[in-house]
Specification:
The chain is built from 19 helices and 25 strands. The chain is α+β, with helices and mostly antiparallel strands. Strands 2, 3, 4, 5, 10, 18 and 19 form a 7-stranded mixed β-sheet that branches.
Length: about 650
């Protein structure tokens, strides 16, 4: 039977349909079977979006459990640039409501739209009032997202210690940018979670599934006492105003544990506010650890300690010094004329000449060794970023006059924290402690992890520490700090310092000063050690260490001893009016029978012996007759370092020669 044309056409059509069906089937197999996984991923990339869920940042507490930094809910504003009907109008509205730069905002939105982006942050963590005003406009291209913002309840009070946080446009969570926030950023930040968002064609999320829960950050407890910090900041501000100083700092420590109770700096800043062009250039610097300075006469404590220990000098050892000394082409002089001084009087009256002569007897290598023993020239290891080691040249780099000038605190640069730790070593019986800023941390739902103080390191003998405490008490009773650092109801000891500031441009010393006071109280069992430093004072009545820094120590130390409930060791009697200050060397010529007008609460200290008599040892010291004034035993009470501050008292008996 002959095939008709119609049948032939039908057969070819059938063949075509079979091939077409085969191609479609093959394509389906290719898409649904062979490429299934790859295409599924591509679809998910278009229809789903994985986003981080920020973890709750840990809270920072002070030693009494008061929050210093915590996280609060906040709203952030973002838009879909592709849905913005008019970029110019949108920029006008958003800039006005959110207080943003209109030109920069317009450029950001335009660039995002040109590159096809469907998401753009406008402003993160806005004020509640801003969010409400924008929400009332009801724009469908504006989105509000819930986030957390960092809040600092104490504001400026602990800003340099606690630090700040910041955020980049691409960040989902705040990151630490200074202070504890930066140093412990990983612990505080926790671990962000993950969420899978289902998005529509406009990339707007309409459903979300948490795939990994966020893990909150750890809470930290600091050693800082906020109440004492407030007192210190108030008194520092007063001293800044009265002295014309540019900057200042106060550090107060527990001398046995190294707990940092106070760390205050001026100028201040509010961590709740972003940096401003009008802020002082060093407003956010923790000057107490980042900015070393020439300490001046405070450093004589190190020089005389080295002499007591290495040369076996005693407080009564006579130094055949006058008020002027010529060293090569330089003249070193004291403020007032005087004759030979005992070691105790060299410190009490802050004799530069006496300190130089003592330093020369100690020798370069030994003096340098003791400077290093006290921790100068190296970082203290405090748990804060940006700490400076200061400047202490090795002996090989000393010039012919370095030993002379470093003996009274020049040609060396130290930080306030280093000085405070040096004072703590004198106060606690000769142990160099490491500063402790973190008392405890706690992960959510887990027990509190407490940190013990690091083991201290002995740097001088207990007998040497006792003698230095005696001489430093003499500074308050009859020396440069008389009438300025005396406490009502408590004994106190310390050392004043006034160092001329060196101008690097003119290579000369200016008539501006670093005024400081290093002190502790009570003398027999110190519970607080403090360094007060003011940089850029102008001299005169309102510029030297005694009248500027010592009264700050007095007020803060009194508050600290009350807050710590330390028993009084003196009857409370009025403190006499302050005397006119000494000169730049903190040297004063005082009659030895002037003790009754010293502004102290007693005529003779229970710790400091009376002034040296005619039988005091001569300058060579070691070969002189032993001291007879302190025959018998004197009890030295020191507290051992303990994890919880309730450390047991150790009784060390020192036998003096009869």
């Amino acid at each position: 039977m002959l095939e008709t044309q119609s049948t032939r056409r039908l057969r070819w059509l059938l063949r075509f349909l079979l091939v077409w069906i085969g191609v479609i089937f093959g394509r389906l197999v290719w898409l649904q079977v062979i490429r299934h996984d790859d295409l599924l991923k591509l679809a998910q990339q278009q229809q789903q979006k994985e986003v981080q869920v920020p973890a709750l940042r840990g809270t920072i507490f002070d030693r009494d459990g008061q929050p210093l930094a915590k996280s609060l809910p906040a709203e952030s504003i973002c838009i879909n640039p592709q849905r913005v009907p008019n970029i110019g109008v949108a920029a006008d509205i958003l800039a006005g409501v959110l207080n943003l730069n209109r030109a920069k905002l317009f450029e950001r939105i335009q660039n995002a739209k040109l590159r096809g982006s469907g998401f753009l942050w406008i402003k993160r963590k806005v004020d509640e009032s801003e969010a409400e005003r924008l929400r009332a406009l009801n724009f469908d291209w504006v989105e509000f997202r819930n986030e957390m913002r960092r809040f600092y309840p104490r504001g400026e009070l602990t800003s340099h210690v606690v630090g700040t946080t910041g955020m980049l446009d691409s960040d989902v969570a705040e990151r630490g940018t200074a202070g504890i926030e930066e140093e412990f950023d990983e612990e505080l930040a926790g671990r962000p979670g993950l969420a899978l968002d289902d998005v529509d064609v406009r990339q707007a999320a309409y459903d979300s599934v948490i795939t990994r829960k966020p893990e909150p950050g750890e809470d930290l407890t600091l050693s800082i006492d906020s109440n004492l910090q407030y007192v210190a900041e108030r008194e520092l501000d007063k001293a800044i105003d009265s002295s014309g100083a540019k900057t200042g700092s106060i550090v107060a420590l527990n001398p046995y544990t190294g707990d940092v109770l106070v760390m205050v700096n001026y100028p201040h800043f509010d961590p709740n506010l972003p940096p401003s062009p009008n802020d002082p250039p060093n407003a956010r610097s923790n000057l107490a650890i980042t900015t070393p300075f020439e300490p001046g006469s405070v450093f004589k404590v190190v020089t005389l300690t080295a002499a007591l220990e290495s040369l076996k000098y005693r407080p009564e050892t006579m130094i055949p010094c006058g008020s002027v000394l010529r060293v090569y082409d330089r003249t070193i002089k004291d403020e007032h004329p005087h004759g030979p001084f005992s070691m105790a009087d060299v410190l009490a009256h802050s004799s530069n000449v006496g300190a130089v002569m003592i330093g020369q007897k100690v020798g370069e290598k030994t003096l340098y060794q003791y400077q290093r023993k006290f921790g100068f020239g190296e970082k203290t290891g405090i748990a804060l970023p940006g700490e400076s080691a200061g400047l202490l040249k090795p002996v090989e780099q000393w010039s012919a006059t370095t030993i002379d000038f470093t003996s009274f605190g020049h040609e060396v640069a130290v930080t306030s924290l280093q000085l405070a730790l040096a004072g703590a070593a004198i106060a606690n019986g000769g142990m160099l402690v490491k500063p402790r800023l973190i008392l405890a941390k706690q992960k959510p739902g887990q027990p509190i992890e407490r940190f013990d103080p690091d083991p201290p390191r002995r740097i001088i003998e207990p007998e040497t520490a006792i003698q230095m405490r005696e001489m430093m008490e003499g500074v308050v009773l009859r020396g440069t700090a008389k009438g300025y650092a005396n406490l009502r109801g408590y004994t106190s000891a310390g050392k004043t310092g006034t160092a001329q500031i060196f101008d690097l441009k003119t290579h000369s010393y200016t008539h501006r000063y670093n005024a400081s006071f290093l002190g502790f109280a009570p003398v027999e069992n110190p519970q607080i050690v403090m360094i007060v430093t003011l940089e850029g004072t102008t001299g005169g009545e309102a510029g030297f260490g005694a009248p500027v820094a010592a009264p700050v120590f007095r007020e803060v130390a009194m508050a600290a001893l009350r807050m710590l409930d330390v028993p009084k060791d003196l009857p409370e009697t009025p403190v006499t009016a302050e005397r006119p200050p000494a000169g730049p060397s903190d040297s004063v010529a005082l009659a030895e029978n002037d003790a009754d007008s010293a502004g102290s609460q007693r005529s003779v200290s229970s710790v400091t012996p009376p002034p040296a008599g005619v039988d005091a040892p001569a300058f060579p010291g070691p070969s002189a007759a032993p001291h007879r004034e302190n025959s018998g035993r004197r009890l030295f009470l020191a507290r051992a370092a303990g994890a919880e501050g309730g450390a047991a008292k150790i009784r060390t008996e020192v036998q003096f020669a009869k």
